[in-house]
Amino acid sequence: MASESVLHPSLIVPIGHVEPVPRRIRGMIGGRVAFETRRALYV
C-alpha cells in the first residue's frame, strides 16, 4: 500500500494552546466585508 500525506489536524493539544491560522479569514454580510484578518488564532 502506498503511503499518503495526511491532511487532517494532528492530535489534540493541551488546554490553552494557541497557534496562528495559516490563511485569511473574511466575514461577509449582505455581500459586503464585515471583517477581515490575516492574524487570526486557533484557540
In words, what does this structure look like?
- The protein is mostly beta strands and 43 residues long.
- The protein has a domain of 27 residues.
- Helices cover 0% and strands 35% of the residues.
- It contains no helices and four strands.
- The strands form two sheets. A two-stranded antiparallel sheet has the order 1-4.
- Strand 2 and strand 3 form a beta hairpin.
- The protein is elongated, with a radius of gyration of 16 Å.
- The N and C termini lie far apart (36 Å).
- The relative contact order is 0.27.
- The mean pLDDT is 83.
Topology:
Elements: E1 19-20, E2 25-29, E3 32-37, E4 41-42
Antiparallel strand pairs: 1-4, 2-3
pLDDT under 50 segments (min length 5)?
Answer: none
Strand portion: 25-35%
Biggest pleated sheet? 2 strands, antiparallel
Multimeric organization: single chain
Helix content: under 10%
Number of helices: 0
Secondary-structure class: mainly beta
Average pLDDT, rounded to a whole number, is 83
- In angstroms, what is the radius of gyration? 16 Å
* SSE string, helices as H and strands as E: EEEE
Key features of this structure:
two-stranded antiparallel sheet, 43 residues, elongated, mainly beta
Characterize this entry briefly.
The chain is mostly beta strands and 43 residues long. It has a domain at 17-43.
